[in-house]
Amino acid sequence: MSNAASARIAMLDTPASAPATKDTAASAGPARPRVVIVGAGFGGLAAAKALAKAPVEVTLVDRRNYHLFQPLLYQVATAGLSPADIASPIRAIMRDQANAHVLMARVEGVDKETREVIASDRRIPYDYLILATGARHAYFGHDEWEGVAPGLKKIEDATAIRRRILLAFELAEGTEDEAERRRLLNFVIVGGGPTGVEMAGAIAELAKRALAKDFRKIDPRQTRVILVEAGPRVLATFPETLSAHARRSLERLGVEVMLGNAVTQCDEGGVVVAGTRIEARTVIWGAGVAASSAAKWIGAEKDRAGRIKVEADLSVPGHPEIFAIGDTALALGKDGKPVPGVAPAAKQMGWYAARLIAAKVAGQPFTRPFRYRDYGNLATIGRKAAVADFGWARMHGWPAWLLWGVAHIYFLIGFRNRLAVILNWTWAYFRFSGGVRLITDVKN
Ligand SMILES: Cc1cc2nc3c(=O)[nH]c(=O)nc-3n(C[C@H](O)[C@H](O)[C@H](O)COP(=O)(O)OP(=O)(O)OC[C@H]3O[C@@H](n4cnc5c(N)ncnc54)[C@H](O)[C@@H]3O)c2cc1C
């Protein structure tokens, strides 16, 4: 788009129904094309950083003021790490990027006609728009289960789950009712994907090692951790041999793995699986994801999970100036299969969209389609086992766990976070301490 056109869009009146404020900070100075990126997760942040040297004004909008390293959320939920270990302020990350402006705002829509992003209290004009708003939990039509079976997506989810888990032990210590004590010490995890497997392994270790000597009336080692998976194996995206390794590792930790049956009921008292009721106070949901509302904002075609169906260059059909990336986009790989919803895919899409925009702004041709490069898949089971699949090589056990640890520390943003995680893990590894056992936000 020409500079004149950009200026015209910036001067369009705000429609009567829209809030009055108009964000002009990103368009101050000589009119450079404005790139608005919604979402500072893996995809959005990668795109913003990749535009550092491009002659554009970047506005990075997020409803939160921090970037979250979701792969380690389960460690916050199971008292292994603190929230600050896995989150970094977006402003601090973008501090040195002169062409970037960070805005904390919840986006609620997009006006494609005027080319403006509609946030809670303002409109943000764009020449190029990157939608990188990720995904949330899906309850397969049973949204009422969310209250009793929280999923793990945000820091608030992780601290709420941590509270639930730790409170269950406290209440079990305090009750005289044997049936209630058993219910309190039953933990059900729904979904045998990486999150479910990681949660199950970590809760089992917390109960059987870290908490083992902390109580007098109960024996936390009596805890039952039950992992329910509707499919025939855990970690279905891994090769069968690694799924089998993962299952054995879980069982060594004392986790009961129930395969081939879905949860058909979920309430305050527990769950029903294959017609059998399992009494449990703590049920954790790790079974499904749905994309953000971004498809609705732009009226785009979406798949069943709500992902925007994008072109081969990640643009939205009919809108070469709008891109959707990461978990909120449905991009197809060379094999015609959807690119998986993982952090490396979101980052690669962010880099790609940024390169394409930079080329367009420079008037250079850019016809190469997006190609996802799969560098491998990792999942951990407790403190000693993991599985790793690189296609050309497979690993399991302790070497895979070491690799998992190194990879996760390497990809954490910020020196302080890396150091904190290394220290926490080392301490926990040798002391079995389960260090961050704080029950916060208790209503007294
Ligand atoms: C518990 C868990 C464990 C995972 N483990 C792994 C793993 O081990 N390896 C791996 O590769 N992947 C893992 N993933 C998946 C990975 O985290 C996602 O694929 C990745 O985060 C997708 O990146 P994204 O940029 O699309 O979205 P996200 O990283 O989710 O970022 C979306 C951003 O958009 C913002 N946003 C959303 N809506 C709005 C709005 N309306 N207004 C403003 N801002 C908004 C959010 O605040 C967020 O910052 C895991 C995910 C979870 C939940």
Explain what the structure shows:
With 444 residues, this protein is an alpha/beta fold. The protein is 32% helix and 23% strand. It contains 12 helices and 25 strands. The chain has helices spanning 3-11, 42-50, 73-77, 90-94, 155-174, 178-184, 194-210, 240-252, 294-298, 343-361, 398-411, 415-431; strands at 34-38, 57-62, 66-68, 87-89, 100-104, 107-111, 116-119, 122-125, 128-131, 135-137, 186-190, 224-229, 255-259, 263-267, 270-273, 276-279, 282-285, 289-291, 308-309, 315-316, 319-324, 329-330, 377-381, 385-389, 394-397. The strands form 8 sheets. A 6-stranded mixed beta sheet has the order 5-2-1-9-21-20. A 4-stranded parallel beta sheet has the order 13-12-11-17. A hairpin with a 2-residue loop joins strand 20 (315-316) and strand 21. Helix 2 (42-50) packs parallel to helix 10. It is elongated and about 70 Å long. The chain binds flavin-adenine dinucleotide. Flavin-adenine dinucleotide is lined by residues 38-44, 61-64, 70-71, 73-74, 106-107, 132-134, 152-153, 194-195, 292, 326-328, 341-344, 346.
